[in-house]
Write a structure and sequence with these properties.
Elements: H1 4-15, H2 20-34, H3 44-52, H4 59-72, H5 75-87, H6 93-106, H7 112-129, H8 134-145, H9 155-164, H10 168-196, H11 210-232, H12 238-255, H13 261-294, H14 297-308, H15 311-329, H16 332-349, H17 354-367, H18 376-385, H19 389-412, H20 415-423
Helix pairs in contact: 1-2, 2-13, 3-13, 4-12, 4-13, 5-6, 5-11, 6-7, 6-8, 6-10, 7-8, 7-18, 8-18, 8-19, 9-16, 9-17, 10-17, 10-19, 10-20, 11-12, 13-16, 14-16, 15-16, 15-17, 16-17, 17-19
């Protein structure tokens, strides 16, 4: 009966609108008390600090700052014009441009919400003006924004790597192929709808001249090159690459004459607020993780899995279902911090590669950003574009189904994510 007390507290506090950090932290402290582990609370501050004193966490606020500077610095416009020169003449060309721009964005900010906000403001109105239905323009913007947290640098993968003691560089390398394959798949779906619904575009479409568009976009295009080459070839750590990218993003914004000092200050303020909120959650999660280790919860889960006879594949399917539901309801970083320490260790004991597991966790929770009732990308686009939330939900369903099928391929074919880091020598 006493074991129900933390659960009751969690439910009541949730219904009262309590923040996730207080939900988890309060439930964990109650759990310490009712499980006769209260004497271990004296060691809690040291335990929490040791879990947060991780160098990889330094890259996270810097990449958040990069995304904030990009949103304010006119970088989206430059990337859109350049993407138009490459794909603008295809049927449904602006849909392809939307996806390709998300790939470029992914190589800089690693944030689905930043991508959605930027392209919702810039590309959706352009697509509607060219003859696309607004609902479709918003849906493909939502679907393509999911590429952001998969292709490095990814804030979600940094988060996972630091929490689970997994190489962030290996995770970054593992995200490249799945992210690019996802982009190709979305382009295929866009091509289908372009011919089915007679979307604009084709050989007669008016597109910018390549050389001027490329020259204008070159400073923005340098950002992913700096980040990826620096990290993957061992020139810079993720934190150093993030710091370099933040400096370059600011310089590019000033070069485009879109970024002002007041914007830089606003971006820095927003970064501090987000980072503080994240670390409060991390403290709460570290408290829960300490209790979980004392009570041997992962080991108990493994024993239960063995009794059920699920095996590796069966367990992965169950875990991904849990993560998908969590992604519908929770912030992605909070869900990673709460669920990864609980669900990942049993998977590793069953033989799942930790890098592969990181890609599954990151992609699954990110897909949750497209799912009701609290899909963050859908909420952002509904606000930015003034399209009804449930209208967006209906429009995005075909893309969501395709991304769930793609998730299934990732589960059953680990080499999609592991081949590149293995080739680069980051995995044995």
């Amino acid at each position: 009966m006493s074991a129900m007390i933390p659960l009751v507290f969690l439910v009541v506090a949730t219904l009262c609108g309590t923040a996730i950090a207080y939900l988890v932290g309060g439930s964990a402290v109650i759990g310490f008390i009712i499980s006769d582990n209260s004497n271990f609370l004296a060691a809690l501050p040291q335990r929490v600090f040791s879990q947060l004193d991780v160098f990889a966490f330094l890259a996270m606020p810097l990449f958040i700052l990069v995304g904030e500077l990009m949103n304010r610095g006119g970088i989206a416009d430059a990337l859109i014009r350049f993407s138009l020169t490459i794909l603008g003449r295809f049927k449904g060309g602006l849909g392809h441009v939307n996806i390709l721009t998300s790939v470029f964005f992914a190589g800089v900010s690693g944030s689905a919400t930043a991508d959605a906000a930027a392209l919702g403001n810039t590309l959706v109105p352009v697509m509607e003006k060219q003859g696309y239905h607004r609902n479709y323009a918003v849906a493909i913007t939502a679907a393509s924004s999911i590429i952001g947290p998969i292709i490095p640098p990814s804030i979600v993968l940094i988060f996972y790597g630091a929490l689970m003691n997994t190489s962030v560089i290996a995770l970054f390398a593992a995200g490249i192929v799945p992210g690019l394959l996802l982009a190709v798949m979305l382009m295929g779906i866009n091509a289908f709808f372009a011919h089915k619904d007679n979307h604009p575009g084709g050989r007669d479409a008016e597109i910018p001249d390549f050389l001027p568009a490329f020259t204008h976009a070159l400073p923005a295009l340098s950002l992913p090159v700096i980040i990826l080459s620096g990290i993957l070839f061992g020139i810079m750590t993720p934190a150093e690459a993030a710091a370099m990218a933040a400096v370059v993003a600011a310089l590019v914004g000033f070069l485009y004459r879109e970024l002002k000092l007041v914007d830089v200050i606003a971006a820095a303020r927003r970064t501090v607020i987000l980072t503080g909120a994240i670390f409060v959650i991390l403290v709460a999660i570290a408290t829960f993780g300490y209790l979980s280790a004392l009570e041997q919860i992962p080991q108990r889960l493994v024993a239960s899995i063995a009794e059920l006879g699920l095996g590796q594949t069966g367990y992965l399917l169950v875990v991904n279902l849990v993560l998908l539901v969590a992604g519908m309801l929770m912030d992605v970083k909070a869900a990673v911090a709460l669920l990864a320490p609980l669900l990942v260790p049993p998977a590793l004991l069953l033989g799942v590669d930790p890098t592969h597991m990181g890609i599954l966790v990151g992609f699954n929770l990110t897909v949750g950003l497209l799912t009701p009732p609290f899909g963050a990308v859908l909420l952002i686009l509904s606000t930015v574009t003034n399209v009804n939330y449930w209208v967006i939900v209906r429009a995005v369903v075909p893309f969501l189904i395709a991304e769930l099928i793609f998730l299934g391929f990732l589960i059953f074919v680990p080499d999609i994510s592991l081949a590149l880091p293995r080739a680069l020598g980051y995995l044995s």
